[in-house]
Amino acid sequence: MSGGEVAGLLVAVFWAILVSFLAVALVRLAQTLRAATRLLNGVTEQAVPLLGEASQTVRSAQTQLDRVEAIAVDVQDVAANASALSATVASTFGGPLVKVAAFGYGVRRALRRRGAPRPVEPPVVARRVPAARRRRPGKD
């Protein structure tokens, strides 16, 4: 065997080993891609129904929020109407009722004073202050 033949044989062996390693790497890559595809299919099968349920839940929540908004608007209208009614009643009846109540109180008081005998006030009795507690002029 000559030097050229040995070199050619070495290059052929090197290429055979390199192709074998590349073939093993490609087979493992193909297995990994198949596993990733199966995983992706499984996730897709589970995610699609979940997305449908989530979409339905969001639509239901939006419907409920619309109802709550309508209720809030109605409550606001009722509160405004009640406030206006309260102001109207206060301005219409407030002043006259206070005057009638004051007049009635005055009439009752006058009738009570007129018909009842005047109470006798008790006499004022002088109190004696003990000598020890009396103030002395010039000492405060």
Which features does this protein show?
mainly alpha, 140 residues
Taking all Cα atoms into account, the compactness measure Rg is 53 Å
Q: What's the quaternary structure here?
A: single chain
Percentage of residues in strands: under 5%
Spatial shape: elongated
Structure, explained:
This protein is 81% helix and 0% strand. By secondary structure, it is mainly α. The model has no long low-confidence stretch (mean pLDDT 84).
Give the gist of this structure:
This protein has 140 residues and is an all-alpha fold. The chain is 81% helix and 0% strand.
SSE layout and pairing:
Layout: H1 3-115
